[in-house]
Amino acid sequence: MRNANNKSRPRVGRFLLYKLSAFIIYVKFLIVLIMNKDDLFYKLVILRMPGVGPVRYNELIARFGDVESAAQSLVINSDITDSVSREIERAQQLGICYISDDMNEYPSQLRMVKNHPPVLCVRGNVDVLSRSTVGIVGTRHATVAGMNFVADIANAFAAHGWAVVSGMAMGTDAAAHRGALRANGNRQTIAVVAGGVDYIWPLENESLYWEIVERGAIVSEMPVGFKPVATNFVQRNRWIAGISEKLIIGEADMNSGSMKTARFGAEMNRQMWAIPSHPSDSRAVGPNTLIQSGAAKLCNGVSDFFESEKNNVENKKNYDSDNSLLDALGTIPVSESVLSDIVKKSISEIKSILVVMELQGLVRKVDGGYVRV
Predict the structure, then answer these.
(1) Domain of 153, in residue numbers
(2) Does residue 25 lie within any of the structural domains?
(3) Domain boundary at 291, 312, 333, which?
């Protein structure tokens, strides 16, 4: 019996020695893995650690002098390193770039913001980040008139060489992106998103997403494949203001994300304009309040920004187009008889056109006449 026990002890010892050797090899593998990666890997390892954001990241770099030393100072398990490796591999497969704040491609306005994202993911044309930028934001539930107004402004900026920045949400954001994309070229617009740059949200904007990838850029601080939660949208709004040199606020109620963007813009001393609307509309409260308080200038349109457009604006409403009746309507009710005088059509013609446009959801009948939806 004793001999059997003596024989088993070497086996147990060999098993423990094997486990120890395997553990040492594994540790060496992790060390080699980390040491063979470039600065991007170290940066992402730090940023993907739970509880580490720009503030903690900057503290670590300041303390240890470089990202490699900072990364090796942390207790990093294989889950983090494997996840970062997979993320980088996935990004390469999708043509996604990483832009860190020590690179020339990083947006210059954003770099000056305190605690900005150390690394951005970019899908699309990186060159668009070097353009002058104007942020245009507003409610998801914008009126047709409001979206058309925003789209025209965005188109003018893009045509003059600016990149239009927004959040790719429905309504105002989508109108701003689409307006910019009406201009020629492939550096028209930047969509700052709350999830990973490969995560399409909302799904209704999928076609817009791919057009921005082709002719602009999708930007995010979040990992590739990340599905956003509510708090990410607030931070997304901050970076829209951070990237933008100028900021234009469209229709928005006081509690909207757009007003948060405006507050961030004010903190960053951005030049700000707001598009006014009728006081009875809750979507006008945000921009009207900004104008009233002096936080933003009143935006009358394209002519506020480009001198060459002023003469065009003066002669714009000739009412000769197919949309002459729609052009004559806004948020203030206009009667059929007044519309008849403006567009030089008979009242019977006006009524027929209004019926069709109401069925199309372009206008609505209210007390006093018709308004544009």
Answers:
(1) 121-312
(2) yes
(3) 312
Q: Indicate the number of domains in the chain.
A: 3
DSSP string, 102-152: TSTTS-HHHHTSTT--SEEEEEE-GGGGGS-EEEEE--TT--HHHHHHHHH
The two tokens of residue 332 are 């203030």
Quick check: is 101 in a domain? no
Give the end of a domain, one of 312, 344, 360: 312
pLDDT tens-digit profile, the chain (373 residues) = 444 444 444 455 555 554 554 454 444 434 434 434 589 999 999 999 999 999 999 999 999 999 999 999 998 889 999 999 999 999 999 999 999 999 999 999 999 999 999 999 999 999 999 999 999 999 999 988 899 899 999 999 999 999 999 999 999 999 999 999 999 999 999 999 999 999 999 999 999 999 999 999 999 999 999 999 999 999 999 999 999 999 999 999 999 999 999 999 999 999 999 999 888 889 999 999 999 999 999 999 999 999 766 555 444 444 343 467 887 887 778 888 888 888 888 888 899 889 988 888 888 888 878 888 8
| Residue 146: count of CB within 10 angstroms of its CB | 28
Q: What are phi and psi of 267, to 5 degrees?
A: -65, -30
Q: 3-class DSSP state for residue 191? A: strand
User: 107 lies in a domain?
Assistant: no
Q: Are 147 and 204 part of one and the same domain?
A: yes
What is the DSSP pairing of strand 133-137 with strand 363-366? unpaired
Asked if residue 45 belongs to a domain, the reply is yes
- Residue 193 sits in a domain whose CATH number is 3.40.50.450
Cα dihedral 117→164→146→167 (10° resolution) = -30
pTM of the model: 0.78
Q: Do residues 278 and 326 share a domain?
A: no
